[in-house]
Design goal:
Layout: E1 2-10, E2 13-19, E3 24-29, H1 33-43, E4 49-51, H2 56-69, H3 86-96, E5 104-105, H4 106-112, H5 119-127, E6 140-141, H6 154-176
Parallel strand pairs: 1-4, 5-6
Antiparallel strand pairs: 1-2, 2-3
Helix pairs in contact: 4-5
Length: about 180
């Protein structure tokens, strides 16, 4: 059995999240509820899904997402139930190693996982990341510095990068003033 809920961690930014007994398994940005639930049933047909706005893990995830959007959290501390190929799991682990406010290219990730020639495959795995934001695929950009693609749309990717860049710049300025 698995549960899902919806929230709006930032104004005008609808998010759906889902969890199994093992951990958070899906996070969808700006997708309709019907499409999200249909996707859950397609991706994890062995699970029985229900909406549970009081589910403890989903509550923790919602709280951490709100803190992230409020610039009070830089990393997520949630159990994850990621299902994918061995290669996808390697890519997703590497994405979790990208520090808040920083960016890496698809080539950087390919090198980090020991598959330097697999930049396209890294891009494909990045695009199949089931828990965007928590596994920060938005921090991956093209080698030329362009944003590349994003399942939630390029405007969302740009907004997430700006959110992190703004928080990092404020923190650096405060440290420079000895605060």
């Amino acid at each position: 059995m698995a549960a899902w809920t919806s929230l709006e961690p930032a104004e005008g930014f609808p998010v759906h999240i889902a969890a199994t007994r093992r951990g958070l398994c899906r996070l969808s940005i700006q997708q309709s509820t019907a499409a999200f639930v249909a996707g859950l049933r397609g991706a994890c047909s062995s699970e029985d899904w229900w909406r549970d706005d009081a589910h403890p893990l989903l509550g923790d995830a919602a709280e951490q997402l709100r803190a992230y959007f409020g610039r009070a959290r830089r990393e997520f501390e949630l159990p994850l139930d990621l299902r994918g190929t061995e290669f996808q799991l390697k890519v997703w682990r590497a994405l979790r190693g990208i520090p808040y406010g920083e960016r890496r290219s698809y080539r950087d990730i390919a090198r980090a996982i020991g598959s330097a020639a697999a930049t396209r495959a890294v891009g494909a795995a990045n695009g199949r990341n089931p828990v965007a934001i928590v596994v920060p695929c938005h921090r991956v950009i093209a080698a030329d510095g362009s944003l590349g693609g994003y399942a939630g749309g390029l405007r969302v990717k740009e907004m997430l990068l700006e959110l992190e860049a703004g928080a990092s710049a404020r923190r650096a300025a405060a440290q420079g003033r000895g605060l």
